[in-house]
Design a protein that fits this description.
three-stranded antiparallel beta sheet; eight-stranded mixed beta sheet; alpha/beta; Rossmann fold; 7 helices
Length: 301
């Protein structure tokens, strides 16, 4: 694992985009793991710029998103389908048939999750997984306590995650309480992990991830070193591309007041093999009773 501290969000985003671009230039048919939320927006904007101005090609690329809220249709403005289309997919030349995002409206969540896992394997596995980290240390929607070997599944969101996402909805009761998410085990199988983090509110989670023990209460730590749900980062077989620029003095990494920024992947000149990264998603879903997991799958994307 490599931790890189950068002074600004823009620099973090550019460094992360350069890592992705280098993979695509070496392997045009790479499989990318995508994340949502405010943290990766700069990365996506830089990739769009590289596509338009430098000819970065996505025609052979396949993508798999980390998660989606249960109960939101693809055209819902808070769905991750909508987020990815508006902020990235409609601006580059990835074939629509190569885009995979978990379905929040399938009639059989268990079967859909099994299909999603199979499809990732059929496409050769994920080459670069983009990640963010939640204020409580969760990656994707793997809340603290998630098994480090977990696979794609239906997950009940933690109260802190619901509270964090409430600002995106008119009413707090509209915030989704369930989501489909790739598991920690699924994420750790990516060949390279690029974890981005920005802001003082992520400092404690980043510190726990980088310096803490590997536990199910800290999934990111298994990829890098632990934070409540980041403990898995340390289990990654190779390097994780990570940069952090918004830790406070209590983290032992940096002073947030002096380094107001993000946490991202390593220097563009570095060579990355299997790694890990998570990007906190900030969307929502409708309040309802737990979704059924017993009908037929609906592998829509």
């Amino acid at each position: 694992m490599e931790v890189v501290v950068l002074p600004t969000y823009v620099e973090m985003s550019r460094a992360a985009a350069q890592i992705v671009a280098e993979v695509l230039n070496t392997k045009p048919n790479a499989v990318l793991g995508m994340a949502t939320g405010s943290t990766p927006l700069g990365l996506y904007q830089e990739l769009v710029r590289m596509h338009r101005e430098e000819g970065l090609d996505f025609t052979q690329v396949t993508t798999f998103n980390l998660d989606e809220y249960v109960g939101l249709r693809p055209n819902h403005p808070q769905s991750y389908h909508f987020f990815m289309h508006e902020n990235f997919f409609k601006h580059v030349n990835i074939p629509p048939g190569n885009i995979y995002i978990p379905s929040g409206t399938t009639s059989n969540y268990r079967s859909f999750c099994e299909w999603y896992e199979r499809r990732i394997k059929e496409c050769g596995g994920i080459d670069v997984q983009i990640l963010g980290i939640g204020s409580d240390g969760h990656i994707a929607f793997n809340e603290p306590g998630s098994s480090l070997s977990s696979r794609t599944r239906l997950k009940t969101l933690a109260q802190s995650t619901i509270e964090d996402n409430a600002r995106f909805f008119e009413r707090r009761d509209d915030v989704p309480i369930y989501a489909i998410t790739m598991g920690v085990g699924t994420i750790l199988e990516a060949r390279t992990l690029v974890l981005l983090a920005s802001g003082q509110n992520k400092a404690a989670a980043v510190a726990a991830m980088v310096e803490g023990p590997v536990t199910s209460m800290s999934p990111t730590g298994s990829v890098v070193p632990a934070s409540r749900s980041g403990a898995a980062a340390q289990l990654q077989p190779c390097q994780a591309a990570t940069k952090c620029s918004a830790a406070n003095t209590s983290t032992g990494l940096a002073d947030a007041s002096a380094v107001p920024g993000p946490l991202v992947p390593a220097d563009s000149s570095a060579q990355f093999t299997p790694g890990w990264k998570w990007i906190s998603a900030t969307r929502s879903m409708m309040r309802a009773s737990p979704p059924s997991v017993s009908s037929h799958p609906s592998p829509s994307r």
